[in-house]
Amino acid sequence: MAAIDVHDLRKTFKVQKNRGGLKGAFVDLFKREYNEVTAVKDISFQIPEGEICGYIGENGAGKSTTIKMLTGILVPTSGRLTVGGYVPYEEREKFVRNIGVVFGQRSQLWWDIGVIESFELLRKVYRVEEADYKKRLDELVERLELQELLNRPVRKLSLGQRMRCELVAALLHNPSIVFLDEPTIGLDIVVKSEIRSFLKDMNREHGTTILLTTHDLQDIEALCSRVIMLDDGSIIYDGGLDELKQRWGTGREVVFQFGTATKLNRLELLTEGMPVKWTAENNLGATVWIPLEMNVSDVLGRVVGQADITDIKIIETNTDDIVRSIYQSGSANKAEEANLALPREGAGHV
User: Start and end of every ABC transporter domain (predicted)?
Assistant: First the structure.
């Protein structure tokens, strides 16, 4: 069964046209004109129960509008959707008991009261039984190490501390589906790592379905097996992260450092007949570009033992660059065509 089922979803807004100058502003008071802006354009996708799916796109692509429709905040202009078996905007009271939502730039905690008091209020909002609440709270507090924070006012928490508390607030009623909108925005690398680890454990232990929107592609790499990519309100890619790298990655690089001077033409001779490309800034270092369909070990087998190597670094396909390339091309199909058209012998960098 699909936890989230979306068919031909569309959302159109009316945006007022503002005339210039004082006279134009005066006319606008009595005669307003509007433009129609389509934020989401007939998108369709299904997310199975227990999947962690990344929902990505540039600013203005339609991500937040989609999330607001999936959580029942906005009513679609057309199309159909169900989340956990409910139509969000029609069955809101039943629906919200089954979902959790974290907005990285908004808080569901009360600013001037202790964290634990916010949790108690949310328990009543979601009508969670006292015994279930205590068991769930103890589990979450221990896992996210919040023991020292429970009696602090929210306004006295750091951003990382607040985001950990926001996760607990969204999960107190044990939802089966969780929407995370930029959950690691502004956090340092240690806190990001802790939150990613927690989300993976929650998904594995409870089978929680997670839809994650983020600009941090390391979140996607760490958590998601599938990516839906949105551009200008339309889906331009829906598939696995590994497939994204395989189909649109331009290759890998291996960076060598040498203990003694090693000329570029000697390295080229060692890998003669292989579809690789060497570059070097000096005789003590060189980089070889290797196409994705070729094993790195085949190249290493030719070079290791034949040169005085002091260090080797393998640079995998960069997801940021792939995504940027797809956005710039306007579609995943165009990006793939552009990749196929690249002269292999000239592709020196990922």
Answer: 24-257
Q: Would the CA dihedral through 56, 59, 60, 66 be positive or negative?
A: positive
Is 192 in a helix, a strand, or coil?
Answer: helix
Location of structure tokens 């939150």: 195
Residues 213-263: tens digit of each pLDDT? 887 777 888 889 899 988 889 998 898 877 877 777 777 889 999 999 999
User: Structurally, what CATH architecture does the domain formed by 2-245 represent?
Assistant: 3-Layer(aba) Sandwich (3.40)
CA distance 113 to 118: 7
* CATH 3.30.70 is right for the domain spanning 250-350: yes
* Residue ranges of E strands in 162-241: 177-181, 209-213, 226-231, 234-240
**pTM of the full structure:** 0.73
Parse the chain into domains and list their residue ranges: 2-245, 250-350
For residue 287, which amino acid is it? T
Burial letters for 38-76: b for 16+ Cβ neighbours within 10 Å, e otherwise?
A: bbbbebebebeeebbbbbbbeeebbbbbbbbbbbbebeb
**Can you give the length of the chain in residues?**
350
Bridge partner residues of 82 (DSSP):
5
